[in-house]
Amino acid sequence: MAASPAVVDGSAAARAWRRLGGAKRLGGIDLARGLALIGMFAAHLLTIDAFDAAEPETWLDVVNGRSAILFATLAGVSIALVTGGATPVVGLARKIARQRLGVRAAFLWVLGVILIFTGVPIYVILPAYAVLFCLAMPLLGVRPRALLAIAAILTVTMPFLVAAIEALFGWGGATDSAIGLLIGWAYPFPVWSIFLITGLALGRLDLSRTRVQVGALLIGSLAAVVGYSLAAVYPAGPVTYDMNGAPTDAGAWFLASVWTADAHSGGILEVIASGGVAVAAIGACILICRTALRWVFLPLRAAGTMPLTAYSLQVVVWAVWAQIALGATTDLWGFRGLEPFWPLTIAVLLACMLWALVVGRGPLENLSNMLSRRLAPGPKVSRLE
Questions:
Q1: Where are the domains of the chain?
Q2: pLDDT, tens digit, 9 for 90 and up, residues 248-261
């Protein structure tokens, strides 16, 4: 006897499939998250030479910095989507949303610290995420135009603040200080809040509309072209350093830190250019997932539904593998010498796809959601919770 539709439709696998491939889900956001994850894996696990347009083997350098920026921009989009999308929640629902966002921030911070203690030699992004989530809490009711205005103002001011802080800490020492690690200063929140706010503005638009998707692709591409062109045509002067690693000309160092599109620089041009790449990538991914190609990218989309799980799994597997093979988790070059990128990436993608198809929401995403609902009780704020 054939199983009844009610039984089939009510199965865990059926619910998982609807969650992954449902008509109401913006699969392009999942694809963009998946691409950001793989880009970060590549930046962590591969030795990549500086970009040179004449040497194709260096083109993979595009993942450096830009993958993490895409990740941060998508965090803003996700926050917008789970708090009402184009129609932000109001009243009690907004209060509950803020509380749950705070719980998620605390969860991310604790998890990030745990991953830092594995000793894996990367700058774990989760503590920075936690800070950014807190900064997003008072912005849940702000409309897209105002959010973009805030992002624009921060773009021309925050790089100066970050450069000043870096100088006070000894020309970049803030990144490796204990406090710097605990707040994710490798992704300094005064600048990285710009990407989150831009993503929040994008998520407050109706991303299901073709006009918005194409607009994101075109405007993001234009910003990228402008930012990188300005960096090429009007570069900052060179900076020289003394034997102690301090710049010989503090003024030249400061200008070079602010007026640059270099990856992880936090410069104004990086914000414009790499932020533009992130926005364009989001628009392109949503457009791609309106076609049959969405099935080709199913493994990436599946990983994109559980980015926290996938990111953390990468770090944990890295730590275990390095400890067994090298006797330590801290040897970056030794671990890269094991050529871990493809086996680790494929394993994570397959694990995420199987979990997404059979179970549904990722385990860490589910834990975060459960904690936020338990510690900030109330009705669902969004169907995406």
A1: 13-48+61-375
A2: 666 777 788 889 99
Q: Which of 230-234, 345-349, 374-378 has the lowest mean pLDDT?
A: 374-378
- Tokens representing 123? 């700058």
Predicted structure pTM score: 0.90
Give the whole-angstrom CA distance, residue 283 versus residue 216: 5
Match 């364009």 to its residue by tokens. Answer: 280
The distance from CA 73 to its chain's CA centroid, rounded to whole angstroms, is 6
CB atoms within 10 A of CB 64: 20
Reading the block at residue 122, the tokens are 């990367």
Rounded-to-integer distance, Cα 104 and Cα 371, Å? 8
* pLDDT, tens only, 133-148: 999 999 999 999 999 9
pLDDT, position 222: 97
Question: Please, which pLDDT band fits residue 56 given cuts at 50, 70 and 90?
Answer: confident
Q: Token digits for 33?
A: 């998250």
Give the pLDDT of residue 4.
Answer: 38
**Residue 235 — pLDDT band, cuts 50, 70, 90?**
confident
Beta bridge partners, 247, equal: 241
Which has more pLDDT, 168 or 300? 300
Dihedral sign for Cα atoms in the order 91, 95, 101, 107: negative
Q: Which token pair is 193?
A: 């809040």
Residue with token string 């200063």: 185
Distance CA 90, CA 87 (A): 9
Instruction: Report whether 72 contacts 126 (CB < 8 A).
Output: no
Averaged pLDDT score across all residues of the chain: 88
